[in-house]
């Protein structure tokens, strides 16, 4: 059984317990709360999944907060940037490190980092690209850092057969952006599902958008 660990905004259930739609589709779901900023919370989730399943096949790191924006980089406070990094970068590292023992026991184990096109240095440095106009230093740089974290884990874990990739869901209409995105949640999830269950497990250290390589 594949266990998809999903989180958002630092504190979310892996799955909404008793979700009638998932259950009606024959998908076995259970609730596990993770605060990615709290090591004890992360360890408790690891213990729960170890007890219930004994292994983990897929870890999807989807925690993210935007920080203060729009605001010029020279005006964004260090404390706000640190808050963003604590969830978007350090939280991901914390969760990934904690779940590694279970992933090493998994079947074709995969780690998927939900990044952003705003973390692409090629796109944000292109004055003709709309991403270059986004004034969110904490968020954009945290996603660039996350891409670096992805490659670091991919290189280190290749000997264990664990693939590690980043995915850009695109500008998706969610609470995160006040539903201003032009992509649907289904469109955004498609690329994540592709990495989790469809693409060859041998592919690693990549950054993808809709099944295609995105620029770093």
Automatic annotation (TrEMBL):
Question: Would the keyword Nucleus be found if you checked this record's keyword annotation?
Answer: no
Q: Which UniProt keywords apply?
A: NADP, Oxidoreductase
Q: Answer whether the UniProt record assigns the keyword Oxidoreductase to this protein.
A: yes
Matching entries from Gene3D superfamilies are given as: NAD(P)-binding Rossmann-like Domain
Any one GO molecular-function label of the UniProt entry = oxidoreductase activity
Top-level taxon in the UniProt lineage: Bacteria
Protein family (similarity comment): Belongs to the short-chain dehydrogenases/reductases (SDR) family.
Q: What is this protein called?
A: C signal
The gene designation is csgA_2
């Amino acid at each position: 059984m594949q266990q998809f660990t999903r989180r958002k905004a630092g504190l979310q259930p892996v799955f909404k317990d008793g979700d009638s739609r998932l259950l009606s589709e024959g998908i076995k779901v259970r609730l596990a709360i993770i605060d990615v900023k709290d090591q004890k919370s992360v360890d408790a989730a690891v213990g729960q999944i170890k007890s219930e399943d004994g292994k983990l096949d897929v870890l999807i790191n989807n925690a993210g907060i935007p920080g203060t924006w729009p605001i010029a980089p020279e005006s964004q406070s260090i404390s706000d940037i640190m808050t963003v990094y604590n969830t978007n970068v350090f939280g991901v590292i914390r969760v990934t490190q904690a779940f590694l023992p279970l992933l090493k026991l998994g079947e074709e184990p995969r780690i998927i980092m939900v990044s952003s096109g705003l973390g692409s240095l090629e796109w944000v440095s292109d004055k003709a690209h709309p991403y270059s106009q986004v004034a969110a230093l904490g968020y954009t740089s945290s996603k660039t850092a996350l891409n670096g974290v992805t490659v670091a884990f991919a290189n280190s874990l290749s000997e264990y057969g664990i693939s590690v990739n980043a995915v850009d869901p695109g500008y998706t209409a969610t609470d995160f952006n006040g539903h201003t995105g032009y992509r649907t949640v289904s469109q955004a999830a498609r690329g994540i599902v592709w990495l989790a269950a469809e693409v060859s497990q041998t592919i690693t250290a990549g950054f993808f958008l809709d099944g295609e390589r995105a620029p770093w």
